[in-house]
């Protein structure tokens, strides 16, 4: 079921399937900025990554002597959420553990996703409640895709990412759905990353250890600015499909892909988060559009 919400600046559509953002427009011009999905490149638009981010070795993990199967990015993106609250400027959806989730993930939980509009800002908040009697292991992340280029007379090469601060960072290399352990320099005391299709021929750009709290998608040919704020998130993915797709994803993560050769033990997975019995984990990222 799709639900709409708007204010004077923005309009959006959210689907209860996966609690996925399906549309994000500037209200005054009806300009669509979210990737609209195309199986030729990527059928999704803004999936929620939970309870893992990225891939696991052989799509499985081990916990307390038991083996579980879990595909890339977890099951939230394919789960039906319940609309539990809606106002003029806020939508909240909820997923509780069930028989299907428990076969993959042995914890009782409640996950709420809240979309809140305030002026030209869309805040997306995640709230995870550990309803089990044991400490929970999890990762969570966002995967919003933005049209790039936005206009027909442009190319991706007209666009760039502006980081809040100059960064000296390397990208982590993926192969076969997992990290290889290699790192390649990406920025050297720079805050501008020019976008090209070839950047994504070897899968996503994955970084950590950055200082910036936001990244902006900008163009040399138009004045539209899409800022993604991710204060507190330790990992960032930047991705487009390798077949010269007309979109780019800016993905804040609490977690990351496993590396080839890693243990199956979920306790040892890089980026895994812990949440005590009865505890609540909250995080939020924001998408801000130029007016």
Written account of the structure:
The chain has one domain: Beta-galactosidase, Chain A, domain 5 (Distorted Sandwich). Helices cover 1% and strands 50% of the residues. It has one helix and 23 strands. It has one helix at residues 99-102; strands spanning 2-6, 10-15, 20-26, 31-32, 48-49, 60-63, 66-69, 82-87, 90-96, 109-118, 121-130, 136-138, 140-142, 145-147, 159-175, 178-194, 205-208, 214-219, 226-229, 235-239, 247-254, 273-275, 280-289. The model has no long low-confidence stretch (mean pLDDT 97).
Q: What string gives the helices and strands in order?
A: EEEEEEEEEHEEEEEEEEEEEEEE
What is the CATH-assigned architecture?
Answer: Distorted Sandwich
* Major beta sheet, strand line-up: 8-9-10-11-23-19-18-15-16
Question: How is the biggest beta sheet arranged?
Answer: 9 strands, antiparallel
Number of helices: 1
Number of distinct beta strands: 23
Q: Quote the CATH topology.
A: Beta-galactosidase, Chain A, domain 5
